[in-house]
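Problem 3 from the worked examples.
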Amino acid sequence: MDCGQQYPVDTIIYSCEKCGGLLDVQHDTEYLKKVATRALFDQRLGTLDAPYNSGVWRYKEMIYPDVDNGLVVSRPEGNTNLYRTPKLAAWAGVETLYLKHEGENPTGSFKDRGMTGGVTQARVLGIERVACASTGNTSASLAAYAAWAGIEGIVFFQNKQIAAGKLAQAIAYGATGIQVDADFDRNLELVREVAQSLGIYVLNSINPFRLEGQKSIIIEAIQQLRWKVPDWIVLPGGNLGNSSAFGKGLHELYSLGLIDRMPRMAIIQAEGANPLYRSYKTGLHEMEPVHAETVATAIKIGNPVNYKKAVRSLKWTDGVVEEVSDQEIMDAKAMIDRQGLGCEPASACSLVGVQKLVRKGIIKPHETVVGILTGHVLKDPEAVMQYHNDTMDGIDGNYANTLHQSEATIEALRGILEAKELTPA
């Protein structure tokens, strides 16, 4: 994306050999103008035919038009719901708020949309082993899709602060899991070095075929809005894969005439893992890595590999970046959970980010907002119980739903239920 150097689509490469920059999958815009139409994508809604029953491969022409359908590795993924949430909209300060729940994917996170693209490319290339570094969600997705494709999955974890729900998935799906005494950023360096020496295919978001799948999130959301573009798209920012993919997807939709304007994008980072926010405050000229610490483990990344692509997305969409505290994240998560939707902590950045940007006057109350929930509530059950038991270090359970203890008598139960002040969500 920096120097314009081109490589054949079947080349195993993660960065440009000429300039060291990030790689993009480049589509033939003139061809897509003829075949990628609203009518085609609408016609495929609800089909039972593979691979178009996937919420990624429904848009095959925009994802990987030349791949043989027989090589596509799909669960199927996508087809996640877009919820209109009036109570959460009122809490955030806007009239219209939709939440796109990517926790409804097969392994419980948005990573499945990227992994179907990445593992499909691995199959195209004849790869037998795939690997990633992970804070959790990527590991679960890679393990599942590798198992489904009949190839070996390998995962490098850090050796602390990995949510049990995510670690358990990777182990259950049969991946080779290695806990390394290093943070995510160092693990990503290691997995790239090991992969190069052992002939293993890397499936972190530095892999451009991953991001092609992830851009389907925003294509699907706009299709669910009957191709009407929202004013804002708000999402969490960690390694900035979604941020990069969304900008690319929107740019392509606009170039193809499938949308008539570009929405604005807001990337929300945790205060303890905020290198993009810090760069944004100084004009996005450069990024300085940080030591990441946040309760939102899915975005606990201090040196995001997709920084330059995220900056490009911000420029394409006239976007903004905001930061939120762990206390704000957990309170917003409690609000989302109480609606019966549920999400992992990182997802809640979207909701509290909207609230914060409304208070600053950046998002206007009358504007339509789509927020992204990235993962399922059971991805991090420990965080749920600690918050509601008010035992989370440095975080108050402001919206705690206390677990009551009772003797096995009608009198004791009546005492709890009669004393409890019922407060509907």
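Problem 4, a separate protein:
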Amino acid sequence: MEERRRDPRARAASFDRARADHRHERTEDYVELIAELTEATGEARAIDLARRLGVRPATVAAAIARLQREGYVRAEPYRAIFLTDRGRTLAEFCRRRHRVVLAFLEALGVDRETAAHDAEGIEHHVSETTLAALERWLERFGPGSG
């Protein structure tokens, strides 16, 4: 009921933020996966991204071109894909955010499999303010807080 009484402009802004978060999710997923593949195998190839994401190589090619324009990766035809400094910074932030959300859900008693699945969706919508609050909560009440 409270939501209906809220200022329509505030509601619109909230929906705008959610839409922007959804657009940024793919960028984060690609950057995170490129970092993961690079660490695991020494390189990230478009074909490996397509397999892991369950999409067509053409979809990956379009995404990589966009990521390159936005300054997250550098890539050359028939070569591996590399994160730029900007891409590495985003990948590190995404990993931190994922770790915190996952740890928080597990600390609440959510089983690991469900927590991992839910963290994948939640992590893209957590603000820096909320993330910091979750970290403080985990420091105080999480596993090993004694």
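Solution to problem 4. Residues 8-41 form the longest helix (34 residues). The chain is about 75% helix and 5% strand.
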